[in-house]
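User: I'm putting together notes for a lab meeting next week and I want to include a structural view of one of the chains we've been expressing. I don't have a solved structure, so I'd like a prediction I can at least talk through. The sequence is below, exactly as it appears in our construct file.
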Amino acid sequence: MLMPLALFFYASYVKETRGPYYYNFNDDPEYAYLLNSLNIAQGLAPHHVDHPGTPLQATGALILRGTHLLVPPSNGQPLVQSVISNPEYYLGAIQFTLLVTGCVTIGILGLTAYRYRQSIALAMLLQSSPFWFFTIGISMARVHAESMLLIIGYSISALLFSVITTTEASKPTNTRITVALGILTAIGVMTKVTFAPIAIALLLLTCGIRAKLIYVMSTLITSALWAIPLIPRLDYYTDWLVGLALHTEAYGKGEVGLIKLENLLFINRCMTDEPIYFISMIGILAYLCIQCAQWLRSKPATRSLQQIIQSPPVILSLFQIAFLIILFKQPRIHYLTPALPILAFTGVYFADSIKAYFKTTSRLFTLLAVALIGLFSILLGVRYESGIQAITAICTNSEAAEEFANSLPPTFTTANAYGSSNQNFALIFGDIFAGSHYEKEITTVYGKNLWFSVWASRFYLERTRIPIGELHPRTKGVIVRGSNMHPPSDGPVQPDQTAKFTLLKRFGNESFWIHEFAADVNTAQEPVH
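Assistant: Thanks for the context. Below is the predicted structure for the 529-residue chain, given as structure tokens.
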């Protein structure tokens, strides 16, 4: 249990290092998930269905209810008011629950590995896999779809020991294992559609026609049940999926096609951000090339191409190669997450096979293992040091931006935009993605707030569009605060009507843009905050 405990403390450290969830690099999609979980806890349908994220939202709803019942941050408040008043507390409760569940899953995975392989070294190697990939520690410190996908992925990895054992013995996969795999697959796909390639790999790995049918049926039935909350927005979700599938860029944008060729260069980012993943993929490609060469040299009757493709190590390897399509289509490093637990299982599976191959020369195997561990330790040490430094720098910038915002003169009105380290805006952003059910509660707790939509190029007071000219009598000027923004404008109006903004201050990727009204402005009225 050493590794699960180490993961718990490490992820907790990362969470503290990243700062509050409303900081500009933390709030998306955390606050959207928080308020959609609140929807379900209130008996409302989730509004944010892009992932679609239903299992995580439902889990969040249970945690919100349980936390409010057992350890509320303040007594006497109804659930909605309590969550709106203490969003960081409830997000922390969700993250803590997911982290503990993930650590327990890692512990069970190690016990399962030892049961099937009778090797403490292999069991500990598999339990240490969350530390192979920097992305995993980040995900376990957050509240997003990848947090749950890791739990599901490692649960599937534990079941794969039984699947592989029966497949290698040419026996049908156990029915209970097959049903469990189908349920977990459905939960994964309904958490985030990027989990779907795993469904194909598991279908190929299960042995026996009956087992495959049971797997398909349990997956479809469970998926249908999780899809019920999506019914009010089913048209939107299907259009979203079609857009993702048919266009070359992230979020269904770009030209019609599979992937954008420039995205292939993202492999360079993988090499620097996840060096163990990059080395593992080279190893997998080498293994597949060796298998192909051996088949070409062998007599056709010895082993058919179909037999090679249907072997568990080849299926696991081909899955990792196929998953690159997801990564190149959505070039964000966290999109790797669904593949990482299966990659860890694949690595241990190959390590076990290599150990058996070297059983007559155990000293050579030991030397090889020590060399690899040394190389990986150096690479991971460099990656973790640079990663933590980057997180600390980003958090420091958010803290500085928050202090600067608090020091702005009250005669100016600040409009927060996407990527601003502001809790009020994080709640507004989350509420928009939750269907705008909590505007009244947010206004009651935090007051009316001016914000700027970077997508519509519009200013809003709560949910009401307000032209920048209407702020003219109340304030000396407007300061727009957000992340990675171009100079903001007040909509597609005539050039002589467009408010001109200039850069006031920048903190990392968070910037402040200012527009001052004419000097004769009457500022006696109460400014809008």
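A couple of points you could mention at the meeting. The chain has two domains: 2-387, 408-516. Residues 362-406 form the longest helix (45 residues).

User: Perfect, that's what I needed.
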